[in-house]
Design a protein that fits this description.
Elements (H helix, E strand, L loop, with lengths): L4 E2 L2 E5 L13 E4 L2 E6 L6 E6 L3 E8 L3 E6 L3 E3 L2 E3 L3 E6 L3 E4 L2 E4 L2 E4 L4 E5 L3 E4 L3 E5 L1 E5 L2 E6 L5 E5 L3 E4 L3 E6 L2 E5 L3 E4 L2 E4 L3 E5 L3 E4 L7 E4 L5 E5 L7 E3 L6 E2 L4 E5 L2 E2 L6 E5 L36 H7 L4 E4 L1
Parallel strand pairs: 1-3, 2-4, 3-5, 4-6, 5-7, 6-8, 7-10, 9-12, 10-13, 11-14, 12-15, 13-16, 14-17, 15-18, 16-19, 17-20, 18-21, 19-22, 20-23, 21-24, 22-25, 23-26, 24-27, 25-28, 26-29, 27-31, 28-33
Antiparallel strand pairs: 2-34, 30-31, 31-32
Length: 323
């Protein structure tokens, strides 16, 4: 199937609540800037695959699931869809700076690129929150999943997870699960689980803090920090450069119910190939490899409008405007 929309900027509006593409058969676009709207409540879906870099300037939706991905790098505007599940993907990375994103179940999948949540960005979910990328950075920003046992926060990266500069990663009332192939750095920041923190780390865990700005990995119920180091036989965790669970001078380190963790009592560490922790695997997968770039002769740096045939094919009961 060819590209449905080619333009610098596009606005797609299903004014009467129809679907815009679908998860199984997404609308294919090649645009730089996209706004998508289908606000009627119901079971409708949004499914879009873009070719190249994409700024998702706006998303308004009242249906069950919106899945938008691009073969390049993804950035967004502010997004607030409190009743809908949202899957956002960029094959070459996701960069969010100074944004606010909230959904009822949210996945940010940076593919083979970095997931960067920086510049006082707020990422929240009333349901589960899943963050994926070759590396994950939360810098001076906030990423929290919802309340309830099924609404965990999950980080999956083949590389490093850095939570720094007063950043926060956690949940309002569920587990925080981390699967990092590289190292984890918590620098004057927090990773929090309510009740549990479960971590599988291929490298080391480094917590840095000061008395004014401590660094913490904290669980809010007894005996619930669980860490596995599948590639190591001992050690693996440091607080301000020292192999310990707690630094009294800076009030930094591993905490359980507000108190310093005790190894073997409230914090459990396992080593070697048998050490495994498996965060839930997200099921909202977009087949981004299906997105085809337009032929060179069809690529445009200007604007375009869709034909009536395109409107009927891609947006049911709605209208589409490209500008």
């Amino acid at each position: 199937m060819g590209i449905d929309i080619i333009a610098n900027s596009a606005v797609i509006n299903a004014a009467y609540g129809g679907s815009i593409g679908s998860i199984a058969n997404p609308l294919e676009t090649s645009v730089l800037d996209l706004t998508v709207s289908s606000t009627a409540l119901g079971s409708q879906e949004i499914g879009v695959i873009n070719s190249g870099n994409l700024n998702l300037a706006g998303l308004s939706f009242g249906g069950s699931l919106a899945s938008i991905g691009t073969t390049g790098t993804l950035s967004t505007g502010n997004i607030y869809v409190p009743t809908s599940g949202v899957y956002l993907a960029g094959n070459n990375g996701i960069s969010l700076t100074g944004r606010s994103i909230y959904a009822n179940g949210l996945t940010l999948d940076a593919g083979s690129g970095a997931l960067q949540i920086v510049g006082a960005t707020s990422v929240g979910s009333a349901g589960s929150l899943t963050l994926k990328g070759a590396s994950v950075l939360i810098d001076g920003s906030y990423a929290y999943g919802g309340n309830g046992s099924a609404n965990s926060t999950n980080v999956v990266t083949g590389g490093n997870l850095h939570v720094v500069n007063l950043g926060q990663l956690g949940t309002y009332g569920s587990n925080t699960n981390i699967d990092a192939g590289g190292s984890v750095l918590v620098d004057r920041a927090d990773i929090i689980g309510y009740p549990d923190v479960n971590m599988k780390v291929g490298g080391t865990i480094n917590i840095n803090g000061t008395l004014v700005e401590p660094g913490r990995i904290a669980a809010e119920s007894p005996s619930t920090i669980n860490i596995s180091f599948p590639t190591q036989s001992s050690g693996g965790y440091f607080v301000n450069g020292v192999a310990t669970v707690f630094d009294a001078a800076t009030n930094s380190g591993f905490f359980v119910v507000g108190n310093p963790a005790v190894l073997g009592t409230s914090m459990f560490v396992t080593y070697g190939a048998g050490a495994t922790i498996s965060p839930p695997v997200d099921t909202l997968i977009v087949a981004l490899t299906q997105a085809a770039k337009p032929p060179a002769e069809q690529q445009s740096t200007g604007t375009t409008s869709a034909t009536e045939e395109d409107k009927d094919k891609t947006v049911k009961k709605g209208t589409m405007v490209c500008r």
